[in-house]
Design a protein that fits this description.
single chain, alpha/beta, three-stranded antiparallel β-sheet, 15% strand, elongated
Length: 317
Amino acid sequence: MTTQPLRLLLIEDNPGDARLIRETLRDAPLSVELEHADSLKSGFALLDEWRFDAVLLDLSLPDSHGLGTVSRTRQQAPELPIVVLTGLNDEATALQAMREGAQDYLIKGHVDSALLLRAIRYAIERNRMQSALHALSLLDDLTGIYNRRGFMTLAEHQMKLARRRLVGFYLIFIDLDGMKLINDQYGHPAGDRALIATAQLLSDTFRGSDVVARMGGDEFAVVTTEANGHGPPGNGRMPLQCPASCRPAPVHQLWRRVFRPGAGNSPGEPAGRSRPDHVRKQARQSRLPLSPVSSPPSPLPPETVENPPWPEPACLP
């Protein structure tokens, strides 16, 4: 099995130190690809353009000095491990650098190829474990998409990237109407299925680079950036589409009310029966056409509450 080479970014302004580090890594038993930047600005430009496994960072650069260099790099590339390579042999500075987000702190001239490579590999593995633990705290337990904390964290990063790249971004809120009706008539397991199906539909509709989250309850949000400088066509609406692998299937008429609210009474529905206030309000705001309902939903018998009569999961017809 072929091992992929480590792709490292060295941000170091001293040509002699950069050459020494390159020669040290050349003697390592593992294949290493090293890119060099002589300033923090040029290093950030490389981070925007290429994928790296880790960053080797000097703390004394022409455009950045001290521990602020670590925090700025961490903000620029929060997913990458940082190994500080500096001539300053100070325990307090080393500890503070770790608190700022560095995975290791090495002294120039005191490392050989084996020690440097081991420090880099350990830094990558520690960062991977920390990222996995952090991801667990950012995900919604029910749907598997991001929760509110994950949305606030990643959406802010997406918007910063959009501003830096001079492209627009869109903030989209989605509210799933009719959840109380589902929970009251068919039980909370049915409501959970509706939330899971909605999360899956949003995940299949938007790109993998977009941030899709459940903000809480029946509320979802998406942050998406323009592709190639162009936004959604037409009036900016982004239609949700079922994936090709998901075939439309018959569902209970209640689902039509949840996803396609209409104003007033539907054909076949008794005149005295009215929709909930929030559904009517949504219908007025969206002006969506009424989806025909042949008959009003009736409560299911108690023994069928755990298994409501619709597929799991299924796209709406």
